[in-house]
Structure formats: structure tokens, C-alpha cells
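testing teh design pipeline on a random one, pls ignore if ur not involved
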């Protein structure tokens, strides 16, 4: 397989994984009621505790997705 094809396929996989994580982050932010804060001030405006909570929930959901 040509190097360029393999590279673009790997890149598209990474992009889809990043899209999935971004979608999960936004979904969880909405569930936690902080979506407006994120939209107005960005992810950096969240406390470390809240960021960790979001990360933990993402990990749980990704684990569920992988086991399906």
C-alpha cells in the first residue's frame, strides 16, 4: 500500500476518534448543565474537579463503546 494512502487512512481514524471525544465532551457538558459556561468561556474556565469529572465520564462511555 502506498505510504500516502496509509497515512491518510490513519489520519481519518484519528480525526474520527477526536470527533467522538469532542461530541462526548459537549454531550456531558450539556448533561452537567455547564454547556453555556463552556460556550462562553471555553474549556479552560472549568475547575480541575469539573474537568476530571468530565474525563471520568468520557472514560466510562468509551469503555462501554469498546465492549459493544
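output:
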Amino acid at each position: 500500500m502506498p505510504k500516502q494512502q496509509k497515512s491518510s487512512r490513519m489520519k481519518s481514524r484519528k480525526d474520527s476518534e477526536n470527533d467522538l471525544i469532542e461530541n462526548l465532551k459537549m454531550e456531558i457538558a450539556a448533561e452537567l448543565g455547564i454547556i453555556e459556561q463552556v460556550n462562553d468561556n471555553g474549556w479552560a474556565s472549568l475547575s480541575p474537579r469539573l474537568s476530571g469529572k468530565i474525563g471520568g465520564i468520557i472514560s466510562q462511555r468509551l469503555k462501554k463503546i469498546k465492549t459493544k
